[in-house]
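Lecture notes, part 5. Sequence design as translation. It can be helpful to think of inverse folding as translation between two languages: the language of shapes and the language of residues. The source text, in C-alpha cells, appears below.
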C-alpha cells in the first residue's frame, strides 16, 4: 500500500518550506498565485489528501449537520431532504442523514452517533415512539443547536418548524362537509405526534363548527403506509353504514384506500369523497386525482437549514420566536368534488 502523502513530502519535492505548502493548500493570500498553483498541481500529482478531520478539530467545526428522520422512503421526507441539501450545499455544509425507522431505540442510537461525529447542529423529525427528548440533551447542554421539524417537541432552547396542522385538517374536513358529507372517517397516524394529534383536533373542530356530532369510532389509527390504506378500506367495507367522506393524513395511504374501495365497486367521489394530505406525486397519478393538503416539504427543508445556519453563525438572536409556521393550502381535485360550481 502507498503511504499517505503529507505536506512535508510536497515540501521536499519542491524544495520549499512545509509552512509555504500549508499556506498554499489553504489558499492563504501570503503565497503568490504562481507558487500556489505549482504547489496545488504537485499535491494533486502526488495524491495528497487534506486531513479535513484534523483541520476541523482545530477549528471546532466540522461543517456537517446531522439529520434524523422517521423514514427515508417517505415521499414527503424525500422532498424535505431535497430542500435541505440545496441550502446546505450552497453554504458548503454536508448532511449526515439517518432514519429512526419509527423506533425510539434507533433514534437514541442515531443521536449518539451524531454527537460522537461532532456534527455542528442537529435537525430532527421525531419517531412514533418518542415521548421525551432526553437523548438530545447532550447537544442542548453543549450549546449545539437542535431544530425539530414536522414532528416536533417543545423545548425552550430548541426551534421548531411546522405547518398549522390543525387549520389544514379543519380546511380538509370543512371541504368534505361543504360537499354534503356528514359521516366522515379520519385515517391518521400515531397520536403521540403533534402532526396527527393536531390534525385530529382540526377534524373535530370542523364537526363542532357545523353542528355535526363527533363519532370516536370514525377514527382509524395506523402507520399510514400503502398496506395500511388497503387494510383501512377493508375495515370500512365491513361497516354497517358506509361513510360518505374520508380524510386521510397522508396521500400514499389515501391512494391505496381509494384503490381498494374502487375495486369493491365504491364510486369516488359519488359514494365516498376522499381528501389526502401532503400533495405527494401519487395524488395526481390516481384516478380520480386526489384532493389534498399541499404541505411545503421542500420549503420546510430549506427553512430548517437556513435557521440552523443562522444559529451556527451566532445570529440566532434575530429569531423572534422559537416556532416557525409555514403556510399550507387545500388543493381540490376530483376525488372530493361532488358539487360542481
Amino acid at each position: 500500500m502507498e503511504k499517505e502523502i503529507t505536506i512535508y513530502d510536497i515540501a521536499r519535492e519542491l524544495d520549499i518550506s512545509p509552512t509555504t505548502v500549508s499556506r498554499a493548500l489553504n489558499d492563504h493570500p501570503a503565497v503568490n498565485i504562481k507558487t500556489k498553483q505549482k504547489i496545488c498541481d504537485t499535491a494533486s500529482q502526488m495524491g495528497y489528501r487534506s486531513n479535513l478531520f484534523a483541520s476541523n478539530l482545530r477549528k471546532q467545526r466540522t461543517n456537517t449537520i446531522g439529520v434524523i428522520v422517521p423514514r427515508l422512503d417517505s415521499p414527503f421526507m424525500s422532498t424535505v431532504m431535497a430542500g435541505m441539501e440545496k441550502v446546505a450545499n450552497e453554504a458548503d455544509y454536508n448532511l449526515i442523514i439517518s432514519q429512526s425507522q419509527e423506533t425510539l431505540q434507533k433514534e437514541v442510537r442515531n443521536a449518539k452517533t451524531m454527537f460522537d461525529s461532532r456534527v455542528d447542529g442537529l435537525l430532527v423529525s421525531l419517531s412514533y415512539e418518542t415521548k421525551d427528548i432526553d437523548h438530545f440533551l447532550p447537544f442542548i447542554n453543549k450549546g449545539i443547536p437542535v431544530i425539530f421539524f414536522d414532528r416536533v417537541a417543545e423545548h425552550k432552547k430548541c426551534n421548531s418548524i411546522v405547518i398549522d396542522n390543525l387549520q389544514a385538517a379543519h380546511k380538509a374536513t370543512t371541504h368534505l362537509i361543504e360537499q354534503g358529507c356528514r359521516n366522515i372517517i379520519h385515517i391518521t397516524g400515531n397520536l403521540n405526534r403533534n402532526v396527527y394529534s393536531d390534525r385530529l383536533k382540526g377534524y373535530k373542530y370542523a364537526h363542532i363548527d357545523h353542528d355535526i356530532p363527533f363519532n370516536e369510532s370514525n377514527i382509524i389509527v395506523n402507520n399510514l403506509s400503502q398496506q395500511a390504506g388497503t387494510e383501512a378500506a377493508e375495515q370500512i367495507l365491513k361497516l354497517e353504514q358506509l361513510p360518505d367522506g374520508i380524510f386521510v393524513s397522508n396521500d400514499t395511504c389515501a391512494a391505496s384506500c381509494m384503490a381498494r374501495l374502487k375495486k369493491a365497486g365504491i364510486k369516488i367521489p359519488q359514494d365516498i369523497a376522499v381528501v389526502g394530505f401532503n400533495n405527494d406525486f401519487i395524488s395526481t397519478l390516481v384516478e380520480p386525482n386526489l384532493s389534498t393538503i399541499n404541505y411545503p416539504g421542500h420549503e420546510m427543508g430549506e427553512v430548517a437549514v437556513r435557521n440552523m445556519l443562522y444559529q451556527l453563525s451566532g445570529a440566532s438572536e434575530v429569531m423572534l420566536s422559537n416556532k416557525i409556521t409555514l403556510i399550507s393550502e387545500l388543493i381540490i381535485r376530483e376525488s372530493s368534488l361532488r358539487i360542481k360550481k
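The translated text above is only one of many valid answers, since several sequences can fold into similar shapes. The radius of gyration is 26 Å.
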